[in-house]
Predict the 3D structure of the following.
Amino acid sequence: MRFVLKTRYAQDVDFFQHNGQRFWYGLLALFVFVAPFLLDDFYTGELALVFIYAIAGIGLMLLVGYTGLVSLGHAAFLAIGAYAHAYFMTEGAPFIVSLIGATAVCVVVGAIVGIPSLRMTGIYLAVATLAFAQIVEKVLAHWESVTGGHRGMAVPEPELFSWSLGAPRAFYFLVLLVLIGALFSALNLLRSPTGRAMIAIRDSEISAQAMGIHLARVKTTSFAVSAGFTGLAGGLLAHKIGYLAPDAFTILISIQLLLMVVVGGLGSMHGVIYGAFFIGLLPQGIAFLRESLPPGIGQIPGLEPGIFGLILVLFLVYEPLGIFGRWIKIRLFFSEFPLYRKSTYKRQKSYLRTERVH
Amino acid sequence: MTLLAADNVSISFGGVQAVSDVSFEVAAGQVYSIIGPNGAGKTTLFNLVSRLYDVDAGSITFNGEPITRVPPHQVAERGIARTFQNTELFEHETVLKNLLIGHHVHRKTALWEELLFLPKVREQDLVFRRQVEDVIDLLDLQSYREQIIGNLPYGVRKMVEIARALCLGPRLILLDEPSSGLNPEETEDLSFWIEDINEELGITVVMVEHDMNLVNQVSDRVLALANGVVIAVGTPSEIQGHPDVIRAYLGD
Amino acid sequence: MELVQLLISGISQGCVYGLIALGFVLIYKATEMVNFAQGDLMMLGAFIAFGFINVLGWPFLWGFLATLAVMGVVGATLERLLLRPMIGEPPFAVLMLTIGLGFILRAVAGAIWGYEDKTLSTPYGGGVARWGEVSVGYENIAVVLGTLVLCVLVFVFFRKTRVGIAMQAASQNQLAAYYVGIPVKWIFALVWAMSAMISATAGILVAPLSLINPIMGFVGIKAFAAAIVGGFGSLPGAFLAGLMIGIVEQFAKHGLPSGLEGFSETTAYVILLIMLFIRPEGIFATMQRKKV
């Protein structure tokens, strides 16, 4: 069991509390940078997709896991980011400018969506975001001049200073760098006053107000930042899928994103990464599973969403802290062995109705 | 000088007149207690001052400026901190995080600076961390720094709630039933802490209390409420013997 | 008389929304859980009815009753298996759970009955009533009548029966309900069973109009919007809002300029957003704020 002796306040502020953490994350970084040279192009592409989901997940996690605002329509920001980026690039903007522009568009839209969020709580907000996403989907389908409507829109290749970044390996590194930047800024946000204000709002709005936190401003900021990250992911996703169509960003995608943050583990950035791997690699896993099942069962169409649903349900009932939560419990088990108590993580249930009017 | 004043404040919920024409004045540096039987409107009064409710009539002034209609978060910015009857802490976070959030009103960094974690953000955080440590020292919370609130015993949570309010650096602190749920030793510690807060930190304390011993021990002035109206105001000994107060608590 | 025609189809569509919304609100009022799979329960009910009436060849009435019985059991079972462990959990978790449940129900229905559209044979199918220039399909009349009957039954149940009142108590404070001897767990199972039966009825009524397939439950999302517009927690509100949305949607479909008819699909959402702006509590507000 490791005891971290703190001798400087800076240790509370920094990312890594002790050298052990630095070692393991360093190893992870090494592996991640070396991976495309060890894997073939297909898996490199899949890994890049996982990273793109992770960037989107960072956005959603900030909103849902850290500020406590549920969004059932985040695919809309993915769509806006993707279409905006593709549109700017087709109009001639350089890659970086276009990507930043698309992110900026999403930030603005996110802020606009955030403003009415102040008048709504919990479930109302969730449905409002759902409604918003459905409307956006329709708008994108009908705004033919910009999005090409149902015919779709081709996405130009990404390039930096006339080097094409479309090849799997180059694209992988592009996405990886963006992910690292996104993680870094998200973690920075979370260890600074605004991030703490978001957490305060999640846990007790009344208390947060009593601490001088401007609910409206922080919630809107959270929406805007969240939308920005997801929009950024959308721009990169546009390159990955190559051709945009309105039905690529349905409510099912929104739910997949939510699945990612819930299954990964609400309330931690680790959860985002675990969740991204989960939804990125699950389709392969299911395809693999299908082949090993007896022919009658394996061939059933539409099994995939069913399995998604089943896994979601199982996690919510048996492991609400997600994959990251389970990992923490496992780690705790080994570090406290043989004194581990199951009740450490016993869930606190709240039965009173007024308690749950949060 | 008068720090906090309420002038003929009234509020009703549905058909119930919770607070009716209540006026009071709290001088700077005082420990001011509000007592009364249950349902007297004490916590409602606090909620009016914290601006969680809107007054139906009357006005509230703090430091000479009216705060009757300001948004709730501004109340903290102006220097009023409060604790809640049923602790409203940030359950999923550590004590340290809870206390750091108390410093929110002192922050001077913009969003973009925080995203990049510029040196000034880091400096600010270290300053906050140092100040939090002072409060932890004052209230003896050293062993609870890294604990998640959900795991803490009730008495400690109440102290964390007070500590968090102190981190605001307020001029006035509203304590809502600070001793409820505490055993006699904890209550005695509490009385010392209230005196410390008042005398060493120079913070004006307004508290709603049921424990008359505590009230007598620390208060400079006491306001007695019953059924939403003021029935008496004076020093603790004056209130103790006041016939209306006795009637309100014990009946006729 | 095109106006009246639109009104009638709007009302019948609105009744479907209203019924599903009723199912939502029923569960929410009693258990404070939001059931995103309500539309999929409707879908399941329609399929099971199809199974009894078209596949097994049972007479309509028997098939209808059998479906209700089966769906009642399904509702109670789902409650027992999935929702019971979630009592006391934060609402978001329950919401996600029901979303997952919806996925599972769709996959199961697709696996059993396939993804092609199916039709349900009804004794009133195909017939049309005429008054002057207005013609109304018998199916539409059935929807409206069936809905009215159901609403009256639900109303009487809640106001007049002991079980209904017990449900209301359990919805307001589970712990207190336990203390006064109300078997809260039975109540929950009963609520889910009832809600499933109501949705199944909606499915059977709407099946002749919209055809049965696993994704027909997506209309539940619009019904959800209706429940909120009506004031989440108000049974009459949910129903009225459903009606309103159904009617406005029909008019939008015919009133919008050509090329934009697709936007009529978003009627429910637009109304929802407007409502959330001007009166978030809904038409009949029932939400309270936390007392500190």
Remarks:
- Residues 73 and 141 of chain A are 16 Å apart (CA to CA).
- Strands of chain A lie at 153-154, 159-160, 163-164, 243-244.
- Chain A touches chain C through 52 residues (CB under 8 Å).
